[in-house]
Design a protein that fits this description.
The structure is a single chain. With 149 residues, the chain is mainly beta. The protein is built from 2 helices and 9 strands. Strand 2 and strand 3 form a beta hairpin. 18% of the residues are buried.
Length: 149
């Protein structure tokens, strides 16, 4: 058995470096390193979450995410989920930056509430918080997750 200790980083292919850096800055990500020999930009937030932006994407799908926006279900990573401290504050912050919530807020019946957003290249990001009992009732528009919705 190979013992995995933690997630080291997440690689995301993007089409436009400046646009991606601007988007991820709202989540506290800052430029750490830009490779001189590859199309990779490393960003990290204060909690140590690291993303490698692979800046060589070409959009040949007309702005669609091939894993999420077409009827055929292709294998691959569909989204990344980030834990946030306060889902209500997260929703307010997304509204302040005019970042569209593409799904949610939703609950899965497990004490968590999530909202989903898309980065400029349509990569799906889930922002998820664990809630104390009784807090879910204070979240406007909260629905139970419907996998068909």
């Amino acid at each position: 058995m190979i013992g995995i200790e933690q997630v080291d980083h997440i690689g995301l292919r993007v089409t436009d470096k400046a646009r991606a850096l601007n988007f991820y800055a709202q989540f506290g990500f800052e430029l750490i390193h830009e490779s001189s020999f590859d199309a990779v930009v490393i960003i990290r937030n204060a909690a140590g979450v690291e993303l490698n932006l692979i800046v060589n994407g070409v959009d040949r799908t007309g702005g669609k995410n091939i894993l999420m926006d077409v009827p055929e279900k292709h294998p691959g990573y569909t989204h990344v989920a980030f834990r946030v401290a306060d889902i209500r504050q997260t929703i307010a912050g997304l509204k302040e930056t005019a970042t569209a919530i593409t799904q949610g807020p939703v609950t899965f019946g497990d004490g968590h509430v999530s909202v989903f957003v898309r980065d400029p290249d349509r990569n799906v990001i889930e922002l998820r918080a664990r809630l104390d009992p009784g807090v879910a009732e204070t979240i406007d528009g909260l629905v139970f997750y419907d996998p068909k919705g």
